[in-house]
Amino acid sequence: MEKAIRTLFYFGPLLFAFGFLAPLIAQTITVMGWTPPFGLTPLHTGLIIGGALGLIAQFRGKWL
Amino acid sequence: MSAAQDLSQLSETELIRMEREIARKHIDKFPYLAVIWAFTNLAVWLALWPLVFMQLIPLWLAFIIATANVALSYLPSHEAQHDIIAKPGTKLRWLNQLVGHLSTIPLVLPYRVAKVTHMAHHKHANDPALDPDYSTHADGPIRAIWQSIKNRQPRAKGGFNAYGDMLTREGCQDVLLHGILYEITFYTIMFALAWNGFAIEAALLWWLPRHIGITYIHFYLSWAPHHPAKEQSRYRNTRSFRSILGNIGSMGMQYHIIHHLHPRIPLYRTPRAYWEMKPILEARGCDVEGL
Question: Measured between CB atoms, does A43 come within 8 Å of chain B?
Answer without folding.
Answer: no
